[in-house]
Specification:
homodimer; alpha+beta
């Protein structure tokens, strides 16, 4: 198969051919099916993808812990996956999820609880939707 | 500063300290402000971030072309950025954009025009929202 034929199959085909990076991962965006808000950006290896597709619950691969991880396995804040999509070059997936509680380990609904605003020639952050739904020190052992 | 104090500043501070990866990039998710749909997942280097914040138009860094890129500079399909957010560990940004036309180089509104569905023990793709808004062969020179 030529490069061009391969590229056409990736972009226009109906075979799922996830394009894992050198570390064996694809990027994954989870959005809240109710609001459309981005809850988190994380990664999946082939096993996390397989388990997510098979179970309808979100599994990820933690780069910092180098481990497969069922979302909510410690916190109870699971994600029920209503739809999975992949993008044109199949190196990213989008999950539309029902989030139980908070997606973020800081206790917020979404990991994206700060806006970036221009200030002078640079930028500053401003809290938005930053209310905590749980106290992380109650949920995660130190 | 200890690792823990640094981590606290990254997660709870109001200083924008983007955590670029080894290639100097952060992951960027662009969503359609009207629908909440994920339009694309791409990357930004510090210059792309700076220009996006300063101009209110989306700039990215193309890994395949190794070049800074103003979204729509060839296709005319620009993105007006209404809000920028960063996540807890500041290695990803979320842009809420007004997309002119199609975000995807294939001519679709979103790069995520295929669903992943379980089939047997594996998965298949199914087109969804896959109408082309332009013909890429008209827009991009071969």
């Amino acid at each position: 198969m030529t490069v061009s034929a391969h590229s056409h199959e990736i972009e226009e085909g109906l075979t799922f051919l996830p394009n894992f990076d050198a570390a064996g991962l694809v990027t994954c965006v989870a959005t809240d099916v109710a609001t459309g808000d981005v809850l988190m950006v994380a990664h999946m290896n082939s096993e996390a993808l397989r388990k997510t597709i098979a179970t309808g619950e979100a599994w990820y691969f933690s780069r910092s812990r180098n481990a497969l991880w069922r979302k909510g396995e410690t916190s109870g804040q699971t994600q029920r996956v209503l739809e999975i999509r992949t993008d044109c070059d199949q190196d990213a997936v989008w999950l539309r999820v029902e989030q139980i509680g908070a997606a973020c380990h800081t206790g917020r609904r979404s990991c994206f609880y700060r806006k970036v605003e221009a200030e002078g020639g640079g930028a500053k952050l401003v809290f938005v939707d930053a209310e905590r739904l749980f106290d992380p020190s109650d949920v995660y052992r130190k």
